[in-house]
Amino acid sequence: MRPVIKADGVSKLYKLGEIGTGTLSHDLQRWLSKVRGKEDPFSIIGAVNDRTSKENDGYAWALRDISFEVNEGDVLGIIGRNGAGKSTLLKILSRVTLPTKGHVDVKGRIASLLEVGTGFHPELTGRDNIFLNGAILGMRKNEIKRKFDEIVDFAGVAKYVDTPVKRYSSGMYVRLAFAVAAHLESEILIIDEVLAVGDAEFQKKCLGKMGDVSKKEGRTILFVSHNMASVKSLCTHGIVLHNGMYAFEGPTHEAVNFYQKNSNLNQFLNFDLNSKNIIGNENIKIIEFKVEALHGDYISVSSGISFECTFFNVKVGINLDITFELVNSEEVKIFHHGALIAKSRDSKEGVYKIKGHLPAYTLNAGQYKFNLIFGENQRYVLFSESELIGFEVANESLGSNTEILPGILRPNIPYEIDFQK
Amino acid sequence: MSKEIDKNLSWDFRIEANETPFKLGLIDVWHYRDLLFLFVKRDIVTVYKQTILGPLWFFIQPILTTITFMFVFGNLAGLSTDGVPQILFYLGGITIWNYFNDLLTSTSKTFTENAPIFGKVYFPRLILPLSKVVSNLLKFGIQFALFLIILVVFLIRGADLDPNLHITFVPILLLMMGGLGLGFGLISSSMTTKYRDLAFLITFGVQLLMFASPVIYPMSSISEKYQLYLWLNPLTSILEAFKYSFLGSGYFDWFWLGYSGVFMLIILAFGAFIFNKIEKSFIDTV
Q1: Do B34 and A106 touch (CB under 8 A)?
Q2: Which among A18, A116, A204, A220 counts the fewest CB atoms within 10 Å?
């Protein structure tokens, strides 16, 4: 066993906002300091990629100083919240983008599957697309030829292999795309949450195939997923990323535990009223906004969820209202609900605090985000901000089933069961 | 893992920030040669999918253009064709001009059109523009065959044409035309990633460039005073040489062909350099 991937101090700096407007001077300054061998003047030292506190400088580190090794045959799970830097890391490893600093040494061919069906052309037949997609992913024509029947078989599209893929159902399309990728012969396979597609049965088949790939063929897999159950069942060990930084590495179950315990700790915003980074406008400034478990250490299906917002109101003598909007990771609005803070034109200038909670067994496991809207007379928006904070509801296994159940709600229904006859 | 063992490990490649833009990665391109031909196949097969006439369009386009040119420039404007039958003069010009034109416009869209793929998977980016060179060469081949057929028909009927041994240089002329098209295409594809306006400038600019090149008129119809300016256009000597080889009218000028060749090499080298540089950071700026 030898390491096949060795990352050393990998960092990635992104410029936020629009690119290409008025940046010629920035570009020049940057270039000058680079020529003189100085630190980039537009990167803030120690600035982290924390979406909850907005930096005004316009540059953010998506990754900072990530170092790790992956041994041959390992299945490494990369875990982290949205924006933790997982995708950036995968993009660097798959050579789609380059690191700003640091380097990665690689032994063997890397095939990356950041998306299924990259380069599929709707007008081409299934057969042509298998070859095209396989070649894009780095396969030679002969390899594809050899595996062709296996791919078609795995995808279950034998009857339609000479039909243009635009006539495929979306399920067939995804199955075919995954089948090509699953039969890659590269030494290292990088997979980004593509398993979130297709029906449950096919997902299982994919997981099984991936398991085979690592166990029987001794290939190395890097796997990113929000689905802790599949991470646990597939990976040998895990890395946890937090705000672009390396937070934990260890055996899978420890990494998952670490992530679930810690992923909720920073689910809050907290600013000094005078801070230049405070979120708000001339009407409203948000001082604190946090989500916590109602009972227990971390938010889970059974913990209940409490949320609390402290804000500074400027407008005096109006009807002030606040609306909380909860959105899940598929951008489905779970609720849009709020309260009247002042209802008879008697709002005061100063700090208000509002607190609410959702009882246990309400939300299903998954990722959620809070949007916040402040209004006047329930008509005019005084201030609104999307995705202020995000949090994850950890799954709770129901009997022997450790997988996340489908559905938005996760009720605990007291059933009455009688034997009738 | 101790440092000593570390030193003994061999690595296949290293992903790091400071890759030099002078390294073209042609070995990598060679490894992905199958992909190149699959892209060519995709381009050719999908262009006229779901059209009634299908591949016939490869012929219809130059024929209609030629007829239009014959009518507008030949009859209405009365431009000289140096005694060559109009249909051959225009078709010959259009055939080789289209190779340059199509190559330039298709390669200049490399980054903007393929951003979704480039954002998801690595392969040598140079594969795409190179595949355009090949697919456009095939397209040229089809139109060139049409030109040859008509040429032969005219020769049999005894038209006063003089195809000569200079025809043996035609592959080199094509290479130069391809190099210029690819070079300019690489440059514009790289520039359009940052400044989208350039995309409009290019479609428009290429149209104008046709009038600044001897496609619809022969060099000999230009007054001595302006001929030098026209020769400075690197396409001029290639177009003239092409027509001279097949039709016997025009100029086969070694000096200006040399000039175009050097011009082509510089543009191509600069294009490859800038493309290589942009390729590495492009995905962060779209």
Answers
A1: no
A2: A18
Radius of gyration, CA atoms only, chain A: 25
pLDDT score recorded for residue A18 = 43
CB contact under 8 A, B285 and A20: yes
Token pair recorded at residue A363: 């939300």
CB-CB neighbors (< 8 A) of B283 in chain A: 91, 96-97
State whether A118 and B117 contact (CB < 8 Å).
Answer: yes
In this predicted structure, the answer to whether residue B236 has a pLDDT above a threshold of 90 is: yes
Indicate the residue of B11, B118, B121 with minimum beta-carbon distance to A112. B121
Given CB atoms, is B27 within the 8 Å cutoff of chain A?
no
**pLDDT recorded at residue B263:** 95
Query: Does B22 contact chain A (CB < 8 Å)?
Result: no
What confidence score (pLDDT) does residue A270 get?
79
Q: Residue range A375-394: average pLDDT?
A: 85
Q: Which of residues 120-179 of B touch A (CB under 8 A)?
A: 120-123
Domain boundaries defined on chain B: 36-284
pLDDT, position A54: 43
User: Which H or E element spans position A349?
Assistant: none
Query: Is 70 exceeded by the pLDDT of residue A164?
Result: yes
Residue B120 to residue A118, Cβ atoms within 8 A = yes
| Pairing assessment for the beta strands A101-106 and B13-16 based on DSSP bridges | antiparallel
The Cα A152–Cα A129 span in angstroms is: 11
Amino acid identity of residue A347, one-letter, is S
- Per-residue burial over A171-191, b = 16 or more CB atoms within 10 Å of its CB, e = otherwise: ebbbbbbbbbbbbbbbbbbbb
Q: Which of A14, A93, A132 sits opposite B42 (nearest CB)?
A: A132
Q: Which domains, from first to last, does chain A contain?
A: 3-10+65-261 (3.40.50.300), 268-393 (2.70.50.60)
pLDDT at B279: 83
Block residue for tokens 């700790």:
A265
What is the pTM for the complete model shown? 0.71
Mean pLDDT of B197-205: 82
Q: Do residue A95 and residue B46 have CB atoms under 8 angstroms apart?
A: no
- Closest residue by Cα to residue B130 from B272, B20, B262, B235: B272
Kindly identify which residue of chain B lies nearest to residue A24, measuring between CA atoms.
B194
Among the ranges given (A210-224, B196-210, B223-237), the one the predictor scored with the smallest mean pLDDT: A210-224
H/E element, A354: strand A350-358
Is B48 part of the contact surface with chain A (CB cutoff 8 Å)?
no
Cβ atoms of residues B186 and B271 within 8 Å: yes
B4 touches A at CB < 8 Å: no
Strands A380-393 and A366-376: antiparallel
Residue A223 vs residues A49, A133, A254: alpha-carbon distances, Å: 22, 20, 16
| Count of other CB atoms within 10 angstroms of residue B137 | 15
Nearest C-alpha neighbor of A263 from the set A292, A288, A225, A224: A292
Taking alpha carbons only, the member of A355, A336, A383 closest to residue A291 is A355
Cα dist. A80→A114, A144, A305, A342, B46 in Å? 16, 34, 21, 40, 41
Q: What are A265-273's contacts with CB under 8 Å, separation 24+?
A: A266/A52, A266/A242, A267/A291, A267/A292, A267/A299, A267/A389, A267/A390, A267/A391, A268/A52, A268/A389, A269/A52, A269/A53, A269/A388, A269/A389, A271/A53, A273/A312
| Per-residue pLDDT tens digits for B69-107 | 989 988 888 888 878 888 899 999 999 999 999 999 999
Q: How confident is the model at residue B5 (pLDDT cuts 50, 70, 90)?
A: very low
Number of Cβ atoms within 10 Å of the Cβ of A144: 23
Q: Write out pLDDT tens, residues A286-315.
A: 999 989 889 887 888 889 999 999 999 999
Q: Does B9 touch chain A (CB under 8 A)?
A: yes
